[in-house]
Amino acid sequence: MALVTTKEMFNKAFEGKYAIGAFNVNNMESIQAIAWACKANNSAVILQVSMSALKYAGPKYLRAMVEAAAEETGIDIALHLDHGPDFDSVKLCIDSGFTSVMFDGSHYDYEENVAKTAEVVEYAHSRGVVVEAELGVLAGVEDDVNVAEENATYTDPDQAADFVKRTSVDSLAIAIGTSHGAYKFKGEAKLDFARLESITAKLEAIGIHNFPIVLHGASSVDEEAVNTCNEFGGKLSGAKGVPAEILRKACSMAVCKINMDTDLRLAMTAAIRRSLAQKPENFDPRGYLKDARDWMQRLVDDKIKNVLGSADSMK
Ligand code: G3H
Ligand code: 13P
Ligand code: ZN
């Protein structure tokens, strides 16, 4: 089963008012956990790798493991570069067999973001690869960049429509209140849904219909995982994510891709901490890595059923 692009996935997700999960992967255990949960739910999925993941595991290993997951499960999997910072990184992934790439030019000024994104789109489209871009700046940590809350800027709807028209990008990541990492909200968790509606309306007004929007920083930061980490020697305080009901609302609107990394990290860390503490005599990594894989699989199963609504999207 060959890897697929996100084109078909997003068309169906927009029509069906659900979203496809985009999970960050770095190793075999996370890839298996996600693929197995998706198989059990007949759900398509996006497996995405960051620049740090590429540095950690290398594009060849990541692609081979993701291809193995697609072959074993028969589900639709897109292999996606998350937050590609420049043309060369994006080109490396396209040339390495990725089916989707993100070029994140959100830190450039607007015209530079348009120009650089358009260059990536031209290269990617001529090779059958789809492109996600970003407009607006999210707060939080991604790769080595830490954006302070006061430097985050929400996406401007008029600019979003102009950007999509001029770049021919396939999907757009927007900033409406989420942030990367485990500490998303100090007070009440809320997203600017009026802005999301306005972005879609502006796109419709210029004849761009059913355009898929991407929500980064969409982990819910499960209390059980945080508490388990802390119970077994971790030190996480004040962690807070996006509640499931808020994500469900986003999925029913134009959001077709929901990015989650932190939730997988927390699940893996919680499971390993607990496993090592409860079985101190064990020194076989397969023991605690299997516990981690099981927890991640349960997590993805829950996301598909209770957040994304993507079960049976393979039909
Ligand atoms: O958006 C950022 C992702 O959570 C990736 O994080 O660069 O540490 O792999 P990472
Ligand atoms: P979280 O930190 O909320 O998991 O977001 C991950 C992400 O947006 C990756 O691009
Ligand atoms: Zn992100």
In words, what does this structure look like?
- By secondary structure, the protein is α/β, with parallel strands linked by helices.
- Helices cover 49% and strands 15% of the residues.
- It is built from 12 helices and 10 strands.
- The protein has helices at 7-16, 28-41, 51-57, 59-73, 87-95, 110-125, 157-167, 193-205, 223-231, 244-252, 262-278, 285-308; strands spanning 20-24, 45-49, 77-84, 100-103, 130-135, 140-142, 145-147, 171-174, 213-215, 255-260.
- The chain has an 8-stranded parallel barrel with strand order 1-2-3-4-5-8-9-10, surrounded by 10 helices. The protein has a two-stranded antiparallel sheet with strand order 6-7.
- α2 links the parallel β1 (20-24) and β2 (45-49).
- α2 (28-41) runs parallel beside α4.
- 50% of the residues are buried.
- The mean pLDDT is 95.
- The structure holds glyceraldehyde-3-phosphate, 1,3-dihydroxyacetonephosphate and zinc ion.
- Residues 24, 82-83, 180-181, 216-219, 259-263 line the site of 1,3-dihydroxyacetonephosphate (13P).
Note the main attributes of this structure.
alpha/beta; eight-stranded parallel beta barrel; two-stranded antiparallel ribbon; 10 strands; 49% helix; globular; binds zinc ion
Map the helices and strands:
Elements: H1 7-16, E1 20-24, H2 28-41, E2 45-49, H3 51-57, H4 59-73, E3 77-84, H5 87-95, E4 100-103, H6 110-125, E5 130-135, E6 140-142, E7 145-147, H7 157-167, E8 171-174, H8 193-205, E9 213-215, H9 223-231, H10 244-252, E10 255-260, H11 262-278, H12 285-308
Bound molecules: glyceraldehyde-3-phosphate, 1,3-dihydroxyacetonephosphate and zinc ion.
